[in-house]
Specification:
By secondary structure, this protein is of the alpha/beta class. The chain contains ten helices and five strands; from the N terminus they run ααβαααβααβαβαβα. Helix 3 runs parallel beside helix 10 and helix 4 packs antiparallel against helix 5.
Length: about 220
Amino acid sequence: MDNNINRHIETLIERYPTLAVCKDDIQAVYTILCEAYTKGRKLLVCGNGGSASDCEHIVGELMKEFKLKREVYKEQAATMKQIDETLGSVLANHLQGALPAITLTSHSSLTTAFMNDSQPELVFAQQVNGYGKAGDVLLGISTSGNSKNVLYAAVTAKAKGLKVIGLTGQQESRLKSLADVCIQVPETETYKIQELHLPVYHCLCMMLEEHFFKR
Protein backbone atom coordinates (compact mmCIF):
# COMPACT_ATOMS: atom_id res chain seq x y z
CA MET A 1 0.00 0.00 0.00
CA ASP A 2 1.18 3.51 -0.83
CA ASN A 3 2.85 5.09 2.21
CA ASN A 4 0.80 8.27 1.78
CA ILE A 5 -2.37 6.18 2.02
CA ASN A 6 -1.08 3.97 4.84
CA ARG A 7 -0.43 6.99 7.05
CA HIS A 8 -4.18 7.29 7.58
CA ILE A 9 -4.17 3.90 9.29
CA GLU A 10 -1.15 4.90 11.38
CA THR A 11 -2.96 8.07 12.45
CA LEU A 12 -6.07 6.04 13.26
CA ILE A 13 -4.07 3.73 15.53
CA GLU A 14 -2.31 6.66 17.21
CA ARG A 15 -5.72 8.09 18.11
CA TYR A 16 -7.34 4.74 18.91
CA PRO A 17 -4.55 2.36 20.03
CA THR A 18 -6.97 -0.52 20.66
CA LEU A 19 -7.58 -0.66 16.90
CA ALA A 20 -4.02 -1.85 16.26
CA VAL A 21 -5.38 -5.42 16.15
CA CYS A 22 -7.52 -4.41 13.15
CA LYS A 23 -4.69 -2.94 11.06
CA ASP A 24 -4.26 -5.83 8.61
CA ASP A 25 -8.01 -6.20 8.08
CA ILE A 26 -8.45 -2.46 7.48
CA GLN A 27 -5.70 -2.61 4.87
CA ALA A 28 -7.35 -5.64 3.25
CA VAL A 29 -10.75 -3.92 3.13
CA TYR A 30 -9.19 -0.83 1.56
CA THR A 31 -7.61 -3.03 -1.12
CA ILE A 32 -10.95 -4.70 -1.93
CA LEU A 33 -12.75 -1.36 -2.20
CA CYS A 34 -9.98 0.28 -4.19
CA GLU A 35 -9.93 -2.58 -6.71
CA ALA A 36 -13.72 -2.50 -7.04
CA TYR A 37 -13.85 1.26 -7.63
CA THR A 38 -10.96 1.09 -10.08
CA LYS A 39 -13.03 -1.36 -12.13
CA GLY A 40 -16.11 0.89 -12.05
CA ARG A 41 -18.01 -1.15 -9.47
CA LYS A 42 -20.08 0.04 -6.51
CA LEU A 43 -20.52 -0.48 -2.78
CA LEU A 44 -23.74 -1.67 -1.12
CA VAL A 45 -24.07 -1.11 2.64
CA CYS A 46 -26.53 -2.54 5.18
CA GLY A 47 -27.08 -2.66 8.93
CA ASN A 48 -29.69 -2.14 11.64
CA GLY A 49 -30.39 0.60 14.18
CA GLY A 50 -27.24 2.60 14.90
CA SER A 51 -25.49 0.61 12.19
CA ALA A 52 -28.15 1.77 9.72
CA SER A 53 -27.15 5.33 10.61
CA ASP A 54 -23.53 4.36 9.96
CA CYS A 55 -24.58 3.09 6.52
CA GLU A 56 -26.03 6.50 5.69
CA HIS A 57 -22.90 8.18 7.04
CA ILE A 58 -20.55 6.07 4.92
CA VAL A 59 -22.52 6.73 1.75
CA GLY A 60 -22.45 10.45 2.50
CA GLU A 61 -18.65 10.44 2.77
CA LEU A 62 -18.17 8.47 -0.45
CA MET A 63 -20.74 10.13 -2.70
CA LYS A 64 -19.52 13.71 -2.16
CA GLU A 65 -16.45 15.60 -0.97
CA PHE A 66 -15.13 14.43 2.39
CA LYS A 67 -11.84 16.26 2.97
CA LEU A 68 -10.58 16.91 -0.56
CA LYS A 69 -11.99 18.89 -3.47
CA ARG A 70 -13.50 16.60 -6.07
CA GLU A 71 -13.94 18.56 -9.26
CA VAL A 72 -15.54 16.72 -12.16
CA TYR A 73 -13.19 15.69 -14.96
CA LYS A 74 -12.56 18.27 -17.69
CA GLU A 75 -14.03 16.01 -20.36
CA GLN A 76 -17.28 15.68 -18.40
CA ALA A 77 -17.43 19.42 -17.75
CA ALA A 78 -16.90 20.18 -21.44
CA THR A 79 -19.63 17.76 -22.48
CA MET A 80 -22.16 19.25 -20.08
CA LYS A 81 -21.40 22.75 -21.42
CA GLN A 82 -21.87 21.53 -24.99
CA ILE A 83 -25.32 20.19 -24.07
CA ASP A 84 -26.36 23.47 -22.44
CA GLU A 85 -23.90 26.31 -21.83
CA THR A 86 -25.77 27.86 -18.90
CA LEU A 87 -26.83 24.73 -17.08
CA GLY A 88 -23.62 22.94 -17.96
CA SER A 89 -21.48 25.73 -16.51
CA VAL A 90 -23.28 25.49 -13.17
CA LEU A 91 -22.87 21.72 -13.17
CA ALA A 92 -19.20 21.92 -14.11
CA ASN A 93 -18.52 24.38 -11.28
CA HIS A 94 -20.46 22.60 -8.53
CA LEU A 95 -20.79 18.87 -9.20
CA GLN A 96 -18.43 16.75 -7.13
CA GLY A 97 -16.69 13.51 -7.97
CA ALA A 98 -18.32 10.47 -6.34
CA LEU A 99 -17.48 6.91 -5.38
CA PRO A 100 -20.77 5.05 -6.03
CA ALA A 101 -22.31 3.69 -2.84
CA ILE A 102 -25.89 2.73 -1.99
CA THR A 103 -27.30 2.18 1.49
CA LEU A 104 -29.92 -0.56 1.61
CA THR A 105 -31.54 0.98 4.69
CA SER A 106 -33.26 4.04 3.24
CA HIS A 107 -35.69 2.88 0.53
CA SER A 108 -38.79 2.98 2.69
CA SER A 109 -41.45 2.22 0.07
CA LEU A 110 -39.52 -0.71 -1.35
CA THR A 111 -38.46 -2.16 1.99
CA THR A 112 -41.85 -1.87 3.69
CA ALA A 113 -43.60 -3.34 0.66
CA PHE A 114 -41.21 -6.28 0.59
CA MET A 115 -41.44 -6.85 4.34
CA ASN A 116 -45.24 -6.78 4.11
CA ASP A 117 -45.46 -9.10 1.11
CA SER A 118 -42.60 -11.52 1.77
CA GLN A 119 -40.07 -12.51 4.46
CA PRO A 120 -38.99 -9.38 6.41
CA GLU A 121 -35.53 -10.79 7.18
CA LEU A 122 -34.77 -10.99 3.46
CA VAL A 123 -35.22 -7.26 2.89
CA PHE A 124 -31.51 -6.52 2.36
CA ALA A 125 -31.03 -9.72 0.36
CA GLN A 126 -33.76 -8.60 -2.06
CA GLN A 127 -31.96 -5.33 -2.69
CA VAL A 128 -28.63 -7.09 -3.15
CA ASN A 129 -30.37 -9.35 -5.65
CA GLY A 130 -31.60 -6.30 -7.56
CA TYR A 131 -28.65 -3.92 -7.29
CA GLY A 132 -25.69 -6.27 -6.96
CA LYS A 133 -23.46 -7.19 -9.89
CA ALA A 134 -20.39 -9.39 -9.94
CA GLY A 135 -17.40 -7.33 -8.82
CA ASP A 136 -19.43 -5.06 -6.54
CA VAL A 137 -18.87 -5.08 -2.78
CA LEU A 138 -21.32 -5.56 0.10
CA LEU A 139 -20.44 -4.07 3.48
CA GLY A 140 -22.51 -5.57 6.28
CA ILE A 141 -22.38 -3.73 9.61
CA SER A 142 -23.51 -5.71 12.65
CA THR A 143 -22.24 -5.26 16.20
CA SER A 144 -23.01 -8.92 16.94
CA GLY A 145 -22.13 -10.19 13.49
CA ASN A 146 -25.26 -12.33 13.61
CA SER A 147 -28.03 -10.03 12.34
CA LYS A 148 -30.12 -12.34 10.17
CA ASN A 149 -31.06 -9.77 7.53
CA VAL A 150 -27.37 -8.94 7.09
CA LEU A 151 -26.45 -12.63 6.90
CA TYR A 152 -29.06 -13.29 4.21
CA ALA A 153 -27.69 -10.33 2.27
CA ALA A 154 -24.15 -11.71 2.58
CA VAL A 155 -25.16 -15.12 1.22
CA THR A 156 -27.00 -13.48 -1.69
CA ALA A 157 -23.99 -11.27 -2.40
CA LYS A 158 -21.55 -14.17 -2.50
CA ALA A 159 -23.89 -16.12 -4.79
CA LYS A 160 -23.92 -13.18 -7.23
CA GLY A 161 -20.14 -12.73 -7.23
CA LEU A 162 -19.83 -9.75 -4.87
CA LYS A 163 -17.05 -9.40 -2.34
CA VAL A 164 -18.37 -9.31 1.24
CA ILE A 165 -16.93 -7.17 4.01
CA GLY A 166 -18.01 -7.41 7.64
CA LEU A 167 -17.74 -4.73 10.33
CA THR A 168 -18.48 -6.23 13.75
CA GLY A 169 -17.39 -6.47 17.37
CA GLN A 170 -14.66 -8.77 18.60
CA GLN A 171 -16.74 -11.90 19.09
CA GLU A 172 -16.71 -14.65 16.50
CA SER A 173 -19.80 -14.53 14.30
CA ARG A 174 -21.56 -15.98 11.29
CA LEU A 175 -20.87 -12.80 9.35
CA LYS A 176 -17.14 -13.31 9.80
CA SER A 177 -17.44 -16.82 8.39
CA LEU A 178 -19.22 -15.46 5.30
CA ALA A 179 -17.06 -12.39 4.72
CA ASP A 180 -13.97 -12.13 2.55
CA VAL A 181 -12.63 -9.79 5.24
CA CYS A 182 -14.18 -8.91 8.60
CA ILE A 183 -12.99 -6.00 10.73
CA GLN A 184 -13.66 -7.01 14.33
CA VAL A 185 -13.21 -3.99 16.59
CA PRO A 186 -12.03 -5.03 20.09
CA GLU A 187 -15.20 -4.37 22.08
CA THR A 188 -18.23 -6.48 23.06
CA GLU A 189 -20.83 -3.92 24.20
CA THR A 190 -22.96 -2.50 21.41
CA TYR A 191 -22.37 1.19 22.03
CA LYS A 192 -18.63 0.70 22.48
CA ILE A 193 -18.45 -1.28 19.24
CA GLN A 194 -20.29 1.51 17.42
CA GLU A 195 -17.92 4.11 18.87
CA LEU A 196 -15.02 2.31 17.18
CA HIS A 197 -16.83 1.61 13.91
CA LEU A 198 -17.00 5.31 13.07
CA PRO A 199 -13.24 6.05 13.09
CA VAL A 200 -12.62 2.84 11.12
CA TYR A 201 -14.93 3.76 8.26
CA HIS A 202 -13.80 7.39 8.32
CA CYS A 203 -10.26 6.12 7.81
CA LEU A 204 -11.34 3.94 4.88
CA CYS A 205 -13.24 6.82 3.27
CA MET A 206 -10.26 9.16 3.60
CA MET A 207 -7.92 6.61 2.03
CA LEU A 208 -10.26 6.01 -0.88
CA GLU A 209 -10.82 9.71 -1.45
CA GLU A 210 -7.09 10.37 -1.46
CA HIS A 211 -6.42 7.55 -3.92
CA PHE A 212 -9.09 8.58 -6.42
CA PHE A 213 -9.26 12.36 -6.07
CA LYS A 214 -5.97 13.76 -4.83
CA ARG A 215 -4.55 15.93 -7.62
